[in-house]
Amino acid sequence: MSRGDSRRETERCGLRLRPAMAALPRWIAGAACIRAASGSALAVRVPRIADMDDNDIGLRVLSGAEIAPYLDDVARLRMSVFRAWPYLYDGDMDYEREYLATYSRSPESVFVLAAAGGAVVGASTGIPLAHETAEFQAPFQARGVDPGRVFYCGESVLLPEWRGRGIGHAFFDRRESHAHALGRFDWTAFCAVERDADDPRRPVQHRGNEAFWRGRGYQRQPGMTVALDWDELDVGATSHALTVWLRPMGVGAGS
């Protein structure tokens, strides 16, 4: 979810135009501010996609230096989507930029962007674990798993109104294919936050993703945890445990 100590700042809709728009790839045609399903303004100024109508959705896979123009867009999507259960994340742009800087420094990182109605509505990230920070590598090393043989899937964030359309599978497919193309990994992995089953903040209608992850060949690894701090809604800075899920390369779709 996040790295290091977080800092708080009021979330707000980004209205500044990014400089040098002419330098962006040709599939960018403008900017928009999406409104979240809750009705509150989603704090993200997203690029628009040329030649796409409101009923289409498309995916764009970017790697290495190609991701730089979209770091703030992914940051704002993360801040919006992760405000919900189970993360309850009260994020700020400074913290997000520090977190995403790891991806921008890696020449083998990947962003998968989902676009609909001319705007980016979701994003998924991945990176070789050896390019991640020490706190992410630590549980793998403790278990005897070489970080150099693991491709780490960071997050998948998708606006609520676009869920249930198979985009989650597509996010995993693209990241796993990217890892396979790099040609040196034995495992793909991600981390999922742990919450108490009886936490009173858990929405009654909440459905976990465990069955989805297992269906793709991932297995939860008890005892392999990453401890991360982030600002939690109505709580402040809080330490959280995220459990590692592992999948051998060559298992399931996208391998």
Described by strand count, sense and barrel closure, the largest sheet is: 7 strands, mixed
Number of domain units: 1
What's the CATH C level?
A: Alpha Beta
Number of discrete helical segments: 5
Q: SSE string, helix = H, strand = E? A: EEEHHEEHEHEHEE
* Assembly type: single chain
CATH architecture assignment name: 3-Layer(aba) Sandwich
How many beta-strand runs? 9
Percentage of residues assigned to helices: 10-25%
CATH superfamily: Gcn5-related N-acetyltransferase (GNAT)
Strand order, biggest sheet?
A: 3-4-5-6-7-9-8
Mean pLDDT: 76
What does this structure look like?
The chain has 255 residues and is α+β, with helices and mostly antiparallel strands. The chain has one domain: Aminopeptidase (3-Layer(aba) Sandwich). Helix content is 22%, strand content 33%. It contains five helices and nine strands, in the order E-E-E-H-H-E-E-H-E-H-E-H-E-E. A seven-stranded mixed beta sheet has the order 3-4-5-6-7-9-8, with helices on both faces. It has a two-stranded antiparallel ribbon with strand order 1-2. The chain is globular and about 45 Å long. 37% of the residues are buried.
